[in-house]
Design goal:
2 copies of one chain form a homodimer. Chain A is an alpha/beta fold. The first copy, chain A, is about 45% helix and about 15% strand. Chain A has a 7-stranded mixed sheet, sandwiched between helices. About 5% of the residues of chain A have low confidence. In chain A, helix 3 packs across helix 6 and helix 7 packs across helix 9. The interface between A and B is large, with 36 and 35 residues.
């Protein structure tokens, strides 16, 4: 073999190796090439490359994610609300006086049409009754049991399998680059903590959610325990999201991800910081593979996970990226990519 | 050299090496040998040795520390209360109507005897007036400036230098063994966050403290910001400590450290978990090198950091370790060990 051939071979090997590295560098295989994926890569490069003018030191790399509709399915109803409805029979067994009392009577009837017409106050009454009054340990056991058994009606799978594969990749990609990933959810903090570590790799102390107080007390044997109170401490929606972030994290996020008007203030607050910031909203525009709702962009209006046209316009104006489920995501669920 | 001599030399080297390792293993050089130091070593060995029946997986290794009187000096007055008193002149400059109003008038007079006689309600009024009403950023700037300038009257040093060297070693030793260290303080969460990362290596998201709410709003340019509210969300003392731990961490600590009756429930809650648990209380019994107060064990009674005899007896009964500053600590402050 002469040296010229050797050089050519070496060059080929080198090129092949580069191509391989470049391919292996794609930590977001379920994302189609496009502006959303590109924005993520550019943001991570800018904030994690030493010497970059937008470099963020590792301890300040905070990324916050809404959960319902951002990390997993929220239609036709938030999973936790389904849990609360399905807890009502057990609750009535403990407290028979609720059997003929509204709104419990309607929930017991199983009449979905009537249940959909419950007022917000009635809904809150059901949530409070099923999410407080027990010890933290009892609640954890109940929630764990339900999560292990309950299945979504459309996919016939546990709710914890209905997470979005592209977002799972994004969580892992950010963590691999030194970001601490938090869930900042309007859902109940204790409920989400019960599965987030296993489902997303996010530990209990990195869950910020709607939270009630607890009361410290002792059982008959003198052993201390915490009882879940009906008192609301943090309504982690809308302005409550940045307020909750300050309370529980104490730092402004560098990146924030949501999907509805309840996430607007979290994204605003994130973008108001100095330097590179990433703010993204998932638009559910894929009725075939998941659901389609807005009412932004002429999508059907809905009460669950509302994404208004005003939010869409604000995103475009402020440089927030809108992720199109239909166009940006190759697959929706982890079980699809494993088929 | 014959082989017998070689063996002897090798044995000597080996023994020397072992002695060296054993010495290097002492991660708590400012602790005297005794039951407190031994309890720490045994606890860490039991909970971090794979295969140990008391092994705790890394993600569950949570250690919580009270701050005032446990990690740094709290006498003659909590540092944050001194901060609040010293903020009063600036507050009155902004709000001249407070100048002749009590309790601000007394604080402005500088009469220490009169200040010591202020009622709890008057004290709370001063705390609320100096810790709320401004933006989170304004508060941070004020606290940071004060911490950089203010000095303790006895040691003529910044308050952040008056941390306990043995506890600093303990924090580092636990972290080196996979423990996540939290501060759980009756002090203001935002105040402690301002210096804890630099002073103890504990980041803002690992500070649980007494916390007020914030309100999200916009400045004239439309930029969002958070204002500190006078509304109390969490009184992180006594039963508030385990309640705050559940709210902010969501896991039961495996080890907890305190020094006063306000820490009792945190230690109880920690010890009520399964497996190996470590609960320790610092007893201030060293008037010469720091302060002496109880009233446990006949030490002088005090309002700041009260350690009652009942708490002492409970500690002995429940297997909580009492750390004697006088007997267990070789040095008190980091600057002493550097002399």
């Amino acid at each position: 073999m002469n040296s010229k051939v050797t050089l050519v071979r070496l060059a080929t090997v080198a090129l092949g190796f580069n191509a391989l590295v470049s391919h292996a560098d794609d930590s977001l295989p379920s994302w189609n090439d496009g502006p959303a994926k590109q924005a993520i890569f550019e943001f991570v490069k800018a904030t994690t490359t030493e010497g970059s003018p937008q470099f963020v030191p590792p301890e300040a790399r905070i990324a916050t994610f809404d959960q319902d509709g951002t990390l997993w399915v929220e239609h036709p109803m938030y999973t936790q609300v389904t849990y609360c409805f399905e807890r009502v029979p057990a609750l009535v067994k403990e407290k028979p006086e609720l059997k003929n009392k509204e709104p419990f009577k309607t929930v017991l009837s199983g009449n979905r049409e009537a249940m959909a017409k419950l007022s917000t106050n009635q809904l809150v009454e059901i949530l409070v009754a099923t999410l407080s009054g027990m010890s933290v340990e009892e609640f954890r056991a109940e929630a764990k049991k339900w999560l292990g058994e309950a299945k979504d009606a459309r996919w016939k799978r546990p709710y914890t399998e209905l997470t979005y594969q592209p977002m799972q990749e994004l969580l892992r990609y950010l963590r691999a680059n030194g970001y601490k990933t938090y869930i900042v959810t309007g859902g109940g903090q204790d409920f989400v903590r019960e599965y987030a570590e296993q489902t997303y790799g996010i530990p209990p102390e990195q869950i910020v959610g709607t939270a009630g107080g607890t009361t410290y007390g002792y059982d008959k044997a003198g052993k201390p325990f915490l009882t879940k109170d009906p008192k609301l401490l943090l309504n982690d929606n809308n302005a409550g999201k940045p307020e909750g972030i300050h309370l529980m994290i104490g730092r402004r996020p560098v990146a924030a991800f949501g999907n509805s008007t309840g996430d607007r203030q979290m994204l605003e607050y994130t973008k108001a910081g100095d330097g590179a910031r990433l703010a993204m909203l998932v638009l559910h525009d894929d009725a075939e593979r998941e659901y389609a709702y807005g009412p932004a962009q002429g999508l059907p209006d809905t009460k669950v996970g509302t994404f208004t046209q005003a939010l869409y316009d604000e995103a475009k104006k402020n440089g927030w990226m809108v992720i199109s489920m239909k166009n940006d995501w190759k697959v929706i669920f982890p079980f699809e990519s494993k088929l």
